[in-house]
Amino acid sequence: MDMTTKLTAAAERLFDRHGYMATGMDRLTEAAGMSSRTLYKNAGSKAALMARVLTERDRRFMARLEVRTVDALFAALEDWVRVEGCRGCLFLRSRAETGGDTPEIAEAVAAHKEAFHRRVGEVVATDLGREDPALAEQVLVLFEGATHAAVYRGAQTVSAAKAAAAILLERARS
Amino acid sequence: MDMTTKLTAAAERLFDRHGYMATGMDRLTEAAGMSSRTLYKNAGSKAALMARVLTERDRRFMARLEVRTVDALFAALEDWVRVEGCRGCLFLRSRAETGGDTPEIAEAVAAHKEAFHRRVGEVVATDLGREDPALAEQVLVLFEGATHAAVYRGAQTVSAAKAAAAILLERARS
DNA sequence: ACCAATGTAAAACGATCGTTTTACATTGCA
DNA sequence: TGCAATGTAAAACGATCGTTTTACATTGGT
């Protein structure tokens, strides 16, 4: 595992578990097992590192959402929370922590959320056989809600969202 | 307006807009218009101040949710985001920023989310005429989802959630 | 008239922040 | 054999962190 991969993985773990602002660079160097000199040579700055973490996470997350049905969309979320745990959306959290004042971070978040929104629209269209932006918005809300409610209600929120989405989809079909 | 009220209001504004960790005490003293000596005499510590902000916000938020129908629940959220804007849930954000490692904050968040969960269950039971924990969970997910999706999709997520909840409720009734 | 309370302004506390630098070790290729 | 690249360890950078302290002003009640 090269230094870039190791650093990005360590950073994602710490930022996700303890927050971006609360994670100091010394904690990061220790977790990544490298000197601060190497870290900065590799990442440039803390904000750039966070942006890279988000871009990498977007890649991994969106890869799981390459599905054809709304049901599979929520099944993918179930897998995700089983693997990654329930700590809410790292993208929204990063943006909120920095008040949207760190351009590199704000841009990575905006790019992800736009891609996510598009993907939900595509899956709904594929599953339903036609575009339905209003339904897609509802599915997006359920997805986002399951993600955040899971923080204090546990993974059951994802099955609740999945069931709700199935009802909405069935109704849209008839 | 006494010092306690002024400080709490200023703190809520800054913590909400820029994040808890990113808000320094000097910024806080300036916004509250008081010396740091008075601030600490009044609040004790930064974490205690955040806990007070959350407790006060819980009071204000829950007061708006004293309704009898699910529709009114989402109407209340519509009012809330119109007044307070769309920056996600301050409770979950605070907890995430501190990794749950600040007891005063973690407790305030847990208390609020438990009260919120109970309230949603009550409103669903009142509206439906009977308890329905599964439906209540779905409504909670929609509420939380509208709150967080609104950060990047705008207030329309609340009407989307409201419409979805109406469909789920109608189906549960027949 | 005076004491106690309550406030301000500002310096200082040690700690930690993100980042850069200095000095040195290892390694792979020409 | 030697140079360039890539790494480490550790000190240092100035800035800022949350918090306490010192010294002083104002004010309301008995």
TrEMBL record, chains A, B:
Would the keyword Nucleotidyltransferase turn up in this protein's UniProt record?
no
Where would I find the HTH tetR-type domain in this sequence? 1-61
Question: Which PROSITE patterns did the record assign?
Answer: HTH_TETR_2
Q: Which residues bind DNA?
A: 24-43
> InterPro entries per the record?
Homeodomain-like_sf, HTH-type_TetR-like_transc_reg, HTH_TetR, Tet_transcr_reg_TetR-rel_C_sf
Q: Which UniProt keywords apply?
A: DNA-binding, Transcription, Transcription regulation
A Gene Ontology molecular function term of the record: transcription cis-regulatory region binding
Q: What is this protein called?
A: TetR family transcriptional regulator
